[in-house]
Design brief:
Structural class: alpha/beta
Number of strands: 10
Largest sheet: 5 strands, parallel
Strand content: 5-15%
């Protein structure tokens, strides 16, 4: 029976996960909660934390795919299952070395949508004009408001972080493109964007001032990742197998996994969450290695830290700072804390309500080991 339980390693599509009968940590109550409003949302989480899977869960929900949600929390909540036109764009799949690369990626999605909704007559116009036209035509042709889902919106910006001219070109292009989401509001049902960071200084979202950033909201602290309760409820057979393989008891293995992979807090006082990528790979391999770091340190972060005079040794025992020091979403060499925090290398360990100071530290042993042995050098 244990061999028949399929771990969703590398599965980033909800439809594929459900149709393939992979194990799933049910996050659909969050989907229903978010979808009950028409507010545009933004979520920042570290890489390999389940952002793409959550985006595709929203996609399947808004496509009315009731069959994929059988037995999940949302089945008891949703009664209507209305199908909406969905525009889903993932910017993670390309290396952006020039403005032409960014435009090519935008064109790839725009052409697909133009073919779907039979509105290719403005194909020679700018990306933002075509995007606005696609949204309007999708609304008119289906008779329903449009859902826009954008995954890893900041990938081009992160790759140009220290190239000021190129970063400015990307900023102008994406600001105009994402700005359409404000002017097209009358045609939209729901908007959700994800990324590692939310840039403030490049003001990509300055035209989208109604965007609500739920990254640090307590109600959504566990929207990505695995809580301890979810770990025990969904993966007990896998924990037992991992414990046997390592000569430990069930309780000892839970404690070891907690030290190694738990501890991410996206709001002060909220329960911690485990890194899902590392947890699944530990179950698959039967060892508790540093899987998240084996995927490589993000180039943008390494480059930023090389330019910085910040004494990274201060982070080893934790650092006490005001929220403005790490949550203003600024990618600056003079203060790399926001980028280190948003990339998942630091988390909120404590909060002094009287002084309004946060203690930031490594979430777990895996990150501590990776930071000291791979990032710090």
């Amino acid at each position: 029976m244990e061999a028949m339980r399929k771990l969703p390693i590398g599965i980033q599509t909800f439809e594929k996960l459900r149709e393939g009968n992979f194990l799933y940590v049910d996050k659909t109550a969050y989907v229903y909660q978010l979808a009950s409003t028409s507010t545009p949302y933004f979520l920042s989480r570290p890489r390999r934390f389940g952002k793409s899977l959550f985006i595709t869960t929203l996609e399947s929900y808004f496509q009315g795919r009731k069959d994929l949600f059988e037995g999940l929390a949302i089945e008891a909540l949703e009664k209507d299952w209305i199908e909406y036109p969905v525009l889903h764009m993932d910017l993670n799949a390309r290396k952006y070395e020039s403005l032409a690369d960014l435009r090519a990626m935008l064109n790839q999605f725009l052409e697909k949508w133009e073919d779907t909704y039979r509105c290719a007559e403005k194909r020679e116009r700018s990306p933002e004009e075509r995007f606005a036209y696609v949204i309007e035509r999708a609304y008119e042709r289906t008779g329903r408001p449009v859902v826009v889902l954008i995954d890893e919106y900041d990938k081009p910006l992160l790759q140009a972080l220290l190239d000021a001219p190129l970063l400015e070109e990307y900023r102008r292009t994406l600001k105009a493109f994402y700005g359409v989401l404000k002017s097209a509001d009358r045609y939209l049902r729901f908007v959700f964007l994800t990324g590692v960071t939310k840039f403030a200084q490049v003001s990509v979202f300055s035209d989208l001032n109604q965007l609500q950033d739920i990254s640090a909201w307590p109600d959504y602290s566990a929207v990505c990742g695995i809580t301890r309760e979810e770990l025990l409820r969904v993966f007990t057979p896998e924990i037992e197998s991992l414990a046997r393989a390592n000569g430990e008891t069930f309780e000892e293995m839970v404690d070891e996994m907690t030290r190694q992979y738990d501890g991410y807090h996206f709001f002060a006082g909220c329960p911690g969450v485990f890194n899902p990528f590392s947890v699944l790979n530990a179950f698959k391999s039967k060892v508790t290695e540093n899987f998240w770091f084996q995927t490589g340190t993000p180039t943008y972060l390494a480059d930023l830290l090389k330019e910085s005079d910040y004494d990274l040794r201060l982070l080893i025992d934790g650092v006490e700072v005001a929220s403005s020091a790490f949550s203003e979403y600024r990618a600056e060499a003079s203060n790399p804390l926001p980028m280190i925090y948003q990339s998942g290398y630091l988390t909120i360990k404590d909060y002094d309500k009287g002084l309004r100071l946060y203690t930031l530290g490594f979430p777990n042993d895996e990150v501590r080991y990776g930071f000291l042995n791979f990032l710090l050098p």
